[in-house]
Amino acid sequence: LKDRLKDPSLLKTASFVDGGWLDSSDFFEVRNPADRSLVAKVADVGAGGAHRAVDAAARAFASWKQVSVYERARLVRRWHDLIVEHAADLGAIITAEMGKPLKEARGEVVYGAGFVSWSAEEAMRVHGETLSTPFPGSRGWTLRQPVGVVACITPWNFPSAMITRKCAPALAAGCTVVVKPAPETPLSALALAELAKRAGFPAGVFNVICGEAETLGPVMTKADAVRMIGFTGSTEVGKLLMRQAADGVKRVSLELGGNAPFLIMDDADVEAAADGVMASKFRAAGQTCVSANRIIAQEGVADALIKALRVRVEKLKVGSGFEERTDIGPLIHDEAVERVAALVDDARERGAKIITGGQSLAGKMGGAFYAPTLIEGGSDVSLSMASNEIFGPVASVYRAADEAEMIRLANDTRYGLAAYLYTRDVGRVHRMSEALEFGMVGVNAPMVGSPATPFGGMKESGIGREGGKWGVEEFTELKFVLLGGV
Ligand code: ADP
């Protein structure tokens, strides 16, 4: 990997604590899922390292919260500029540790950097209000103050953007941060730490610790100094963290699993809908929480949609993310391939039609590859892949009769993150987007995330929103001050 980087000093293997690099004699391996080769050995700093990071963040908070928001925003902005300047290297690091194609990896870096510049600007607009009070001779007003030390636990599918999306608004709002990245993708997090160091954040304001989740996690969720847990990952782990946070009544912001329905109505532009499915389903080889999980087509367009999808899926090129022409990289590891294969086997056994793909390429290609797959599930929504997040390059299409049935099917899940709707009927746009129990609805649009807009879920998909003014407000406390005797 070093040879691919213009600036090899972005490759770090120690944790970043209190403004310096913290090493350890314990380590874990990071492997490239495309060929299982060793990318790096990363220090595991254990519970001791986690305590040091939390203590450093708590000390730094005392002064960081007093720094003017103009100065905080200036440093956050500098971090943004450095991230953009090194986007190619950061992209290569993502591809090496998690496998997504280089063009997507660079796209992620730029997308993630968008949250950094947005946060720098938005934090300057955080303000209180004056309120009317019922008591004669009194005045009342509100303050928005930083929450305190924030512990961020992030996943491997967006190793860079999930960190910037949480940390930039937290830092700009005046919080200090301890990040624990996924063990699969620590190098992206540590490269961001190196750039934060160069940007000039004071020691302890931004910390990244690597090691075993079961050891570091409880230190982060239990420490008195930590006032908020920001998490993106599985619903199962999110629930565990919420339980741990409950003891200290810590604030939680959770971005959890999804089971996105992608609804295509009879009146939709089928070609545009097929393009939308491809963008939503096959980005990061289907390993995103907003990936279309259940493609539900109204009877009148189902055949045309399947035909249009087949042509597109069969054109996808599978390979290493470093190859220019690759559309679909490997999954994160071999167990992920086995999980996806089991879901497809379940569908096959229940009589679903495999139109193309449907097999693991892990043996043949020497890495964690699965063939891009199109499945026709008919009206059988009891398939395991209809109720579980597929997290792989497998598109499954179901059929439904009318609007009411489609809404019922779409909402028949414990998740509520993203939903997609393709229709050209403006009445339908309103009726259906209002009826869908999801935090984000893309109408004739397959991507719903941006720095300016709220990202987050309903039901078991999470609590809180990232992005926009809401993403900055999450990291503030609303305080009321009443002044008497005026
Ligand atoms: P996935 O199954 O996609 O890897 P996870 O929810 O397991 O999703 O992982 C998301 C993040 O949560 C990662 O950083 C992972 O290390 C972390 N994590 C997993 N288990 C725990 C735990 N028990 N305590 C704290 N963090 C955890």
From TrEMBL:
GO molecular function terms noted in the UniProt entry: oxidoreductase activity, acting on the aldehyde or oxo group of donors, NAD or NADP as acceptor
Keyword Oxidoreductase in record: yes
Keywords assigned: Oxidoreductase
Catalytic residues (UniProt): 255
Superkingdom: Bacteria
Domain Aldehyde dehydrogenase: 21-481
The family this protein is said to belong to: Belongs to the aldehyde dehydrogenase family.
Family annotation (PANTHER family): SUCCINATE-SEMIALDEHYDE DEHYDROGENASE, MITOCHONDRIAL
Protein name: NAD-dependent succinate-semialdehyde dehydrogenase
